[in-house]
Amino acid sequence: MYKQQFFIRLFWCFLASSLVVVESAEETSIEELLKWEPPAELTERFPYYLSGVDNEGAQVWVVDFGKWDNRDIVDAGGQRFQDFKKYVQQMYTRAAYKNLKADPSKYSVVIMDWDGFTKEKASHIPGTLASIDMLRSFEKFARQGGFKRGFIVNANFLFETVWRLGKPVLGRLNELVEVFGTNPAKWTPNLLKLIPRDQLPEKFGGAKGHQYEKVFG
Questions:
Q1: Are the CB atoms for 154 and 113 separated by under 8 Å?
Q2: pTM for the complete prediction?
Q3: Residue 25 maps to which CATH number?
Q4: Which of 98, 122, 123, 175 sits a CA distance of 20 to 30 A from 11?
């Protein structure tokens, strides 16, 4: 029964996302965006990381999207939600802007970990729409250059359903991102083909005791 209700809710969720343009964050120059100081609430609740570099010297970024819980912010709307969207835009800009005129081999790699994406989060339609918008934002930056590869790992049934139903509205993202389930044996070899072990945290098959090069948040 729950799965049936979940599919129905997701159907309407993606129908809405395909018909309604989610309000974008206020247009800001790259320089202004990178100088912007996000509210402490955002940096504390939604960290992301520069992990290291891949075999070609391109930056490797990690985002624990599954642990992010934006439901209260989305429900609040107003400036809190605008700041959240601006924060996501700043994150992608920070990860991509240095690469926009670089050789494609130097475009960034992003690992999106969806461990922690619960049924409560998935069934919250405004929050799910905001998550779709985050993926759309990634697709927009990828289209402009700056990202060469994305990995989604720990995708459970809930996320895989969201991803499958969302493919029609996610554009080129399907070409750039590989989606893997919750079995590390399936995706660890793929990561290690592109990224040295000492540039990854242990949870992704990397070196024990690996420290992120930089933590944002």
A1: yes
A2: 0.86
A3: 3.40.525.10
A4: 175
Give helix 125-144 / helix 78-96 axis angle, nearest 10°: 30
Integer Cα distance of 217 and 214 in angstroms: 10
The strand ranges marked E within the chain are 48-53, 59-63, 108-113, 147-153, 177-179, 214-216
Number of domains comprising the chain: 1
Domain span holding position 131? 2-216
Sort strands 59-63 and 108-113 into parallel, antiparallel or unpaired: parallel
Phi and psi of 22, rounded to 5°? -65, 130
Q: Averaged over 37-61, what is the pLDDT? A: 96
pLDDT given for residue 96 in this prediction: 86
203-206 long-range CB contacts below 8 Å, 24 or more apart?
A: 203/113, 204/62, 204/111, 204/113, 204/153, 206/51
